C-alpha cells in the first residue's frame, strides 16, 4: 500500500490569529508534528502565548524547549546572528529542529524605525535561515497591530498558516531583495542639538571620528560595552564611506527616544547599501564585512539614498 505524503512543512510561515482558540489551532499541529517526528522543538514566544499553548499541550509541554539563551527579539542585530548560529549548529550536528517564534512589533521607544528594521530582518531571514531546512512558524496577534502593519508582515513571509493549521503559499509575498530595496529606512530627522558633529575629509579622520563616536555615546548614557559596540559599528560604516563614497562626509551623534543614534552621510552612489550586510560576508573575497558587522551590533540600521549621496543610521537602545 502506498502512503500519501502529508502537506509540506513550512519553511517560513506567518500565523495570524485573533483569539486564544485560534492561536491553539494554528500552533498545536505544528508543534505536535515535531514532537511526533522526534524533532527538537523550540518556542521563542511571549509568556502569554506560552501559557496558552502549554495548557493545550498538557504533559507534552515539558518536551518543548521554551526559549534559548541569546534567542530573543530585544535586540534585532544580536537576535539575527543568534538564530543563525543556533540553526547552523543544529544543521551541522544533523539534529532535526523546528521553531515557533513570536516577534515583537510594538517598536518600543524607537517606534516606527524599529518596526521597519524588524520587518527587514524578517525579509532577510527567509534566505538567511531558510537554507538550513528547518520548519519555522512566526506568530502574530491581529488584535495588537494595525492592518497596514500586518500587511507588511505578510509581505515578508513566503507562507501563511490557515485557520485549520494547514500551510499554504502566500500570494502577498515579496522577494527579499525587492522588499529590502523598497524599505531601506526611514532615517530620523536630525535634532537641533547633537552631541557630536564632525566633518570627514580624509582617511586620517577615520580613527578620530570613531573614537569621538564612542565618547559621545558614553556621554549620552550607553554603557561602556554598548558604547564600544557603537564605536566599532560606526567605524565600519565610516570605513565604507571612505572606501565607496565621495568626501566630504559627516558623522553626527545624538540621544533621544531611549536610544543613541549615529548617522553617517557621504556623497556618491549607494544603491546596494539597502540590501547589503544581512548575510555573512564571503571573507575570501575580502569585502562586504562592514555592514554585516554594523547590523549585528546595532539594534536598528536604516539607510536612505539621495541624488547627492547616502545616509546610514545606527540606533543603540539605552539599557
Structural key phrases:
319 residues, alpha/beta, Rossmann fold, Heat Shock Protein 90, 2 domains, seven-stranded mixed beta sheet, five-stranded antiparallel beta sheet, 9 helices, 39% helix, disordered N terminus
What class, by secondary structure content? Answer: alpha/beta
- Cross-sheet strand order for the largest sheet: 3-2-4-5-1-6-7
Radius of gyration: 21 Å
Mean pLDDT: 89
Distance between the termini: 61 Å
What is the strand tally?
A: 12
Describe the structure.
The protein has helices spanning 20-36, 47-57, 76-93, 112-130, 147-155, 176-182, 205-219, 224-244, 289-297, and strands spanning 13-17, 40-44, 65-66, 97-102, 136-141, 159-161, 167-169, 196-200, 246-256, 259-267, 300-306, 309-317. It is built from nine helices and twelve strands. The strands form two sheets. It has a seven-stranded mixed β-sheet, with helices on both faces. The model is unreliable at 1-7 (pLDDT under 50). A hairpin with a 2-residue loop joins strand 11 (300-306) and strand 12 (309-317). The chain has two domains: 13-182, Rossmann fold (3-Layer(aba) Sandwich); 196-317, Histidine kinase-like ATPase, C-terminal domain (Heat Shock Protein 90). Helices cover 39% and strands 22% of the residues. Helix 3 crosses helix 9 (289-297), helix 4 runs antiparallel to helix 6 (176-182) and helix 7 packs antiparallel against helix 8. The longest helix is centred in the last third of the chain and has 21 residues, at 224-244. With 319 residues, the protein is α/β, with parallel strands linked by helices.
